[in-house]
Amino acid sequence: MTSKRSERCEAAGDIRVVGNVSTIYIDSLDREWRTKPYARYHDPVAMTHVREFVLKPFPSDAPPPACTKNHSVPGFVFSNRGFSGNLYHDYTDVLVPLFLSTRRFNGEVQFLLSDLKPWWVAKFRPLFRQLSRYEVVDVNNDLEVHCVPRIVVGSDFHKDMGIVPSKAAGGVSIVDFKRTLRDAFGLERAAASRGGATGAGKPRLLIISRKNSRRFLNEREMAAAAAAMGFDVRIAEPDQHTDMSTFARLVNSADVMVGVHGAGLTNMVFLPAGAVLIQVVPFGGLEWLTGVTFKNPAADMEVTYMDYNVQLEESSLLEQYPRNHQVLTDPYAVHKQGWDALKAAYLDKQNVRLDLDKFRATLRDALSRLPPA
């Protein structure tokens, strides 16, 4: 166990991967092991959907499965089940741990992906090509017996959206991960500034829009207020089908990014150094959640972080409940009812209408924190 969230099995020798039955034969083993290659071991709901691999010694009464495909490089087994497909979980559960665990191979590693979703691989293929010189193998659906000299099943995990360099091979950091993303997606901007991309223009504000819950109810007014302050304003709404390269370039062009807490803020990985992230924290005592997901990782990513805390008067919850309802008067009592109750009350059913004077003050503060042109 490399943390309470991750387990890594690593072996060298005569190794044969029979992916369609999720079995790996290892000549040096003296007992059987079982593992799920997804970095969310503390979450039984997520792990329920992850395919288990069995690591077995060679059979004593028969020859091992014959190799049909020989590889001269190590194999690395990971899964994109669990909560992957949600951008935040794509990065915190899969991609950052994958980078942390495989950068040491300098591209000489064969990815063996369990539960492969073709659209998901296509979305992140530019990153995979930075980490491996070989095409990703759909290990559960091909009929090959892959023979490798070394196998790693499962990734290391340090912290949400982050890396602890002192614990990482080669001392890599989350800044190295961002640099790899820049190379993967051809992003040009390394640093933000008050003068925008050219250094002599307007700083760009990117508003992350949402369709369903946690929507900005006065998004156009927010954009107009920002434009009047001298920002070049863009509004964008990423979803599962968004072209990652195009959206990465848009985020990389921003100097300030603002959005309500949600997976879309994960695109902070594409912000240039010195950019400002403004996370709009919905009403309901959610600071612990918004802290671990985006506030805490921001500093290591060289992103300046700011909170915008929604007051009750800015929340649509005021229209859904009477003033004396527990959801409005005692959020922490709702928290004690468990995640499902919290999510239903404050994440699934809440939209926000920002106070424009307060929003302007926040933008002035953000502008002052940007590096000079």
From TrEMBL:
Location of the protein in the cell: Golgi apparatus membrane
Source organism of this protein record: Aegilops tauschii subsp. strangulata
Stretches that traverse the bilayer: none
Protein name in UniProt: Glycosyltransferase 61 catalytic domain-containing protein
Glycosyltransferase 61 catalytic domain segment(s): 173-278
Organism phylogeny: Eukaryota, Viridiplantae, Streptophyta, Embryophyta, Tracheophyta
Membrane topology: Single-pass type II membrane protein
GO cellular component, one term: Golgi membrane
Main localization category: Golgi
Listed GO MF terms: pentosyltransferase activity
The protein's annotated pathway: Glycan metabolism
Entry keyword set: Glycoprotein, Glycosyltransferase, Golgi apparatus, Transferase
InterPro entries noted in UniProt: Glyco_transf_61_cat (IPR049625), Glycosyltransferase_61 (IPR007657)
Record has Lipid metabolism as a keyword: no
